[in-house]
């Protein structure tokens, strides 16, 4: 029997989701897209899930689209816009909008859409041996899955152009020093560090973290005045959560807070 393309493990307060087509460096076919969508939908509807950890099986994180599916189309040209509408764009929107932190543990090469899926997560940890490749230009394509949006914002215009147009691999250490990712860690420490972060998020004020995600995303297009108004509105919402009350109480009582993660 074929291995499932996505593995999900329920941990205490978070879920570990593994891309699982290692023989193809975890590149995406339709079955993997569908299974990942189901895994994310399920995590979102589980009130006890307060963080998600995404990683890849084997030596790679994800090599983007499985190109062997594109060869199979023969003379008939594939409509790549259709796949992007059906799968990649909804995936990126979902990852960005999940109401809890999404941590990626980039265990090996992250190429094409695989790189941009990682870069659209909240906290990106990478093994020192991993590399990020905007592979698209090598096959005549345009960075997708939010690549042209995140790259200039994370590393600036000059580096974004170099990465997108030269398609050269960027090692994890350099990705960290350029500000593309949160942290590069020794390979042996990757999963331990990522799981530690998720365990920390699993006891954090989740509703407040979801509001932080909203505020930072909105800042990309807002004016400073709009952003100040948004911060006021979101702070009002945050101030109504039980975790805010608990955070203040715990601080005043000099004890560790006991956050529920709930909105109300
Ligand atoms: O089509 C649409 O729907 C539009 C959406 C597009 C989104 C995209 O992601 S387009 C970009 C697609 N991805 C790529 O172009 C990356 C292709 N892969 C590579 O450039 C290299 O494999 C890597 C840089 C990722 C890794 O290189 P390396 O030397 O470490 O490994 P390798 O030997 O090239 O690959 C190992 C195996 O995985 C190999 O198979 P084999 O020879 O052992 O049987 C290779 O063919 C396979 N593999 C790697 N990437 C893909 C793949 N098979 C199918 N599709 C892949 N994307």
Question: How would the blueprint of this fold be written?
Answer:
Elements: E1 6-11, E2 14-19, H1 30-45, E3 52-56, E4 60-62, H2 68-71, H3 80-97, E5 102-106, E6 109-111, H4 113-119, E7 123-127, E8 131-133, H5 147-155, H6 157-166, E9 170-171, H7 172-177, E10 183-185, H8 190-201, H9 206-218, H10 224-239, H11 242-252
Parallel strand pairs: 2-3, 3-5, 4-6, 5-7, 6-8, 7-10
Antiparallel strand pairs: 1-2, 8-9
Helix pairs in contact: 1-3, 5-6, 9-10
Describe the structure in your own words.
With 264 residues, the chain is α/β, with parallel strands linked by helices. Helix content is 46%, strand content 16%. It has helices spanning 30-45, 68-71, 80-97, 113-119, 147-155, 157-166, 172-177, 190-201, 206-218, 224-239, 242-252, and strands spanning 6-11, 14-19, 52-56, 60-62, 102-106, 109-111, 123-127, 131-133, 170-171, 183-185. It has a six-stranded mixed beta sheet, sandwiched between helices. α1 links the parallel β2 (14-19) and β3. α5 packs across α6. The longest helix is centred in the middle third of the chain and has 18 residues, at 80-97. The chain is globular. The N and C termini lie far apart (45 Å). The mean pLDDT is 97. The structure holds ligand T3D. Residues 24-25, 27, 63-68, 70, 80, 83-84, 88, 109, 111-113, 133, 135-136, 139, 141, 144 line the site of ligand T3D.
Please provide the count of β strands.
Answer: 10
What is the radius of gyration computed over CA atoms, rounded to a whole number of angstroms?
Answer: 19 Å
Identify the overall geometry. Answer: globular
Mean pLDDT: 97
Question: Structural class per helix/strand content?
Answer: alpha/beta
**Separation of the first and last Cα atoms:** 45 Å
Major sheet, described briefly?
6 strands, mixed
Low-confidence runs (pLDDT<50, min 5 residues)?
none
Bound molecules: ligand T3D
Number of discrete helical segments: 11
- Report strand %: 15-25%
| Widest beta sheet: strand line-up | 1-2-3-5-7-10
* Helix content estimate: 40-55%
Q: Return the string of H and E elements.
A: EEHEEHHEEHEEHHEHEHHHH
